[in-house]
Write a structure and sequence with these properties.
four-stranded antiparallel sheet, Gyrase A, domain 2, 15 helices, alpha/beta
Length: about 500
Amino acid sequence: MWWFSILVLLYNSSFIFSQSLPLLLLVSFNGFRWDYPKLYGPLGNFSRLEQRGVHAHSMIPTFTTATYPNHYTLITGLYEEIHGLISDHMYDPKTNQTFQAGETTANQWWPFKTIWTLNEQMNGARSGVINWPQGFISTSKYEPYKKDRSFKDTIDLMLSWFNDQDRPINFGAMYFPEPDLTGRRTGPYSSNMKATIKQCDEYLGYLLNEIDKDIRLKTKLHLIITSDHGMEQINATDRPMYLEDFVNINKLKAFGTETVLNIFVNQPNDINSILQNLTQIPHSNTYKKENLPVRYHYKTNSRIGDLIIIVEPGYELHRQSFRICEDGGTRVDLNTIHGNSGYDNQIDSMKTIFYASGPELKENFTLSKSINLNNVDIFPLMCLILNIEKCSLSNGTLSHIQPFLNDPSKLSSLNGKETEKLHDGPMGLVIYLLVLVSFVLILIMAVAWSAVSFRNASAMARAAHPDAATIAEQNQYKFTQINDLKLHPSIGDDNL
């Protein structure tokens, strides 16, 4: 049964190789405002994570500050005008198709490589995703969003993937819909929100405790806790505003949320008159696309309208055609709406959280308030942690994440020469030699065994050959280079 021993050796070498890969878990709490730990603290487990790792005073999301666009930014490092997911509800004039968050699943809306895709392109690396707000995700392990899946069950499933004996993952991403749901129902300053934040702290505590029970995860796993946006209290709920009260809706198409609307004008000659009407909407600003402030990074995509209405914080602009009341009418009952996001990404209420820990990161470190951490910066940080030396082009700024690192010089690997082969380095060399010796042994034993049984030797050779071919193929991946300042002009609307 010598051949069984060889197979066991091969299996163990493969498992050892998978254990040598960097480990990272990305967790998103939807709608977790940056100051909730102060408003509803002390939060013991968030403080615990802060002490064992790094923390930012706040993190700035992309504009618009909506769920689907910002979750796509987190995993691509791109502004919304670049990756094209510019709203939770949007229109593509090129294809004449409409996107609606939670309903649309076609892959055409998510065209760029994500952090989990880049991770899986490394030899032996696997990614797992649970509940992420996106269409179908092609990774080694995937579970779509289920409303009734508890946070505890999500944690247990994710950690079991990291410890899978056959196909362990080294990168995981999971999403939880709170405290966003509570914020929209009762507002960010309610007693319900206080209870929800305390519950989120308990969820984090459970995650940390489960990680600490596993010595490998405790010592090797990097953990990032973040969110997509903050939450703003809604004012004037007894005086709702409707788009139809200010403009002839038959002259345009409107897509977006209650806080940012993209207006596509049917006839170009009507754009100035429609703009004049829209400027009469209280508590809002309307821009022509080309006149939007540059800081929004929200003008170079065809899915952005001819005119953009941006509502002031605390207010909403509704559409009679978009919401239908329970009594069949077309007026919105704002008694059920007390919080929202989607406002200017620079205001405090839209900023969110960032905590991280792991062997590559400092302990008990808080980023200086003089550095504005943006969510586009998280992508290159994850590339560094996962040893993806040549990630896709990104809007992230490396100098923003440099203070987090135990060894800031590692940033040079993201801008260096072509990606080295996976097996470079002492540990990689040991594993490579182990696998090589295993195959040599198989070859020798196969030749020896051929004197006794030609059939068994032939079967052995056929079994061994595909593995060698696979290993050779998997060492050919090359990646494009990160840009520390801005994207190359060729990456933009035409690529969507």
